[in-house]
Amino acid sequence: MAEVLVVVEASQAGVKKVTLELLTIARELGEPSAVVLGGPGAAAAMSDKLGEYGAQKIYAAESEEIDGHLVAPKATVLANLVTSVSPAAVLLASSQEGKEIAARLAVKLDNGILTDAVGLDADGTATQVVFAGQTIVKSKVTKGIPLVTIRPNSVTPTPAAASPAVENLTVELTDKDKLAQVVNRVAEQKGSRPELTEASIVVSGGRGVGSGDNFKLVEELADLMGAAVGASRAAVDSGFYPHQFQVGQTGKTVSPQLYVALGISGAIQHRAGMQTSKTIVAVNKDEEAPIFELTDFGVVGDLFKVVPQAVEEIRKRKG
Amino acid sequence: MKIVVLVKQVPDSGAERNLRSDDNTVDRGSANNVINEMDEYAIEEALSIQEKHGGEVVVLTMGPSGATESIRKALSMGPDSAVHVADDALHGSCAVATSKVLAAAIGQLDADLIICGAESTDGRVQVMPHMIAERLGIAALTGARKLTVDGSTLTIERQTEEGYEVVTASTPAVVSVWDTINEPRYPSFKGIMAAKKKPLETKSLADLGVDASEVGFDGATSTVVEHSKRPPRQAGNKVADSGDGGVQLVQYLSSEKFV
């Protein structure tokens, strides 16, 4: 079977869920090989997990120079690997970094690129949802191999145990790969909530939340449900919540199992970022709010009454 | 410092947008075409750097002839001049080919700094800054929420999931910005009047030395096979809170096994 390269994404907590989803998709196309591009020791820490989800082989490119620069070194190493093993496809997460590595790879190899796929057929046809979730597109790479970035939560990751051997790659970089130097990484995320784009449940607040302080209520419900916290553009622009949690046209696109919209009117800019959620519920005091066109269950009411009651009810049920 | 700002004309993201049924490209004919919103932040950033450090700001757009309207709008904010790459052969170009054309145009402009929006509201592909940087062999500092210029040294705060990264490079470089970086100015009446007289140069593929076979449908590296309207969601139950809205919400979530 043909080899399919899956570029691994990791956080402090280890392999990201989206990588396991990519391995699951890759198994439909061929034999997945995981590609770890990171600092020294990166691959060893993740090999068990990657094997559990079907990686037949792990390519490890580990270097301080990869970690210390923006994506260019990763793209160079990956391009060399693609040239030497001629894979059937290359899959990356549709994150900022995943798209950026893919962008450089496409230019280096003069190869087509498809981004933000929500599905990928065995013949390389990708499904994309565009224009604020209103149009479904099927597309294909016509020059080179399928080079596709895939959105988190597009499939349910399923294990398929394998015992991958680790093959170390030599990291040969030029000065051109080291132009953008990362001099510091600053953590701002509070607590241990799941990442917004990967979370199974997202609880978001909008202008109706009223203040940054009131977002504690959104966070309380989120934490009780093991959810990530999101915010509408109106809430972010009003300074209620930081921009990296913004869901919508100019923020993140999320596709969780459950999306809870609190005090969010549902402007098209917001819908663009959450319309493909499997189940949507909302609390809004305006019964005409467009968000209710999308909801599987909606409560017309004051979120400062409804949400605390819901929190109390969930606590009661949990005992 | 010579700053080139990339500006794309896109269909208004606040209205219904479509792909054409004949050739699967973005339907610009039926759309209200506007400046890509994120590009206004790029223009603002370029102007504020110019105000502090001097130099020149040039708008660069690739697009059909109708894009002139958005270019004049961009100029009304304050840039000095514009270059419009327009050629019938460009219709249907993929991202890889588009980056080739833009890189060629930037090369002719001899820019120190190229600023663009982090993504466009139509494609949302986010690949252009790194593709251009790869072609030109220069740095790309992408996803900036803050940009500092100190002589030839550029430093950004790059927004990440966990917080931010401080990334630095020397000019020439491409910088892409999010809408958190500044608050774009509104064009003044004087700015709008002045924009009409500002230099706007139109360049063809031949002017850029790019062969028509490398762009458009002929040179495309990917293709749209088919497209369809996504069926609208069916709205479900909506209840008015009469004192037990929270409990009802949890009952629903419980019935769907979320609680």
Automatic annotation (TrEMBL), chain A:
FAD binds at residues 207, 232-233, 246-250, 263-270, 284. GO terms for molecular function: electron transfer activity; flavin adenine dinucleotide binding. Binds 1 FAD per dimer. Pfam families: ETF, ETF_alpha. Its cofactor is FAD. It comes from the Bacteria. Residues 4-186 form the Electron transfer flavoprotein alpha/beta-subunit N-terminal domain. Keywords: Electron transport, FAD, Flavoprotein, Transport. InterPro entries: DHS-like_NAD/FAD-binding_dom, ETF_a/b_N, ETF_a/FixB, ETF_alpha_N, ETF_asu_C, ETF_asu_C_CS, Rossmann-like_a/b/a_fold. The keyword Ubl conjugation does not apply. The keyword Transferase does not apply. GO terms for biological process: fatty acid beta-oxidation using acyl-CoA dehydrogenase. Heterodimer of an alpha and a beta subunit. The electron transfer flavoprotein serves as a specific electron acceptor for other dehydrogenases. It transfers the electrons to the main respiratory chain via ETF-ubiquinone oxidoreductase (ETF dehydrogenase). Belongs to the ETF alpha-subunit/FixB family. This is Electron transfer flavoprotein subunit alpha. It comes from Planosporangium mesophilum.
TrEMBL record, chain B:
The keyword Iron does not apply. Residues 221-244 are annotated as: Disordered. Keywords: Electron transport, Transport. One of its GO terms (molecular function) is electron transfer activity. CDD domains: ETF_beta. Residues 23-212 form the Electron transfer flavoprotein alpha/beta-subunit N-terminal domain. Its cofactor is FAD; AMP. The keyword Transport applies. PROSITE patterns: ETF_BETA (PS01065). GO terms for cellular component: cytosol. Belongs to the ETF beta-subunit/FixA family. The electron transfer flavoprotein serves as a specific electron acceptor for other dehydrogenases. It transfers the electrons to the main respiratory chain via ETF-ubiquinone oxidoreductase (ETF dehydrogenase). Heterodimer of an alpha and a beta subunit. This is Electron transfer flavoprotein subunit beta. The gene is fixA.
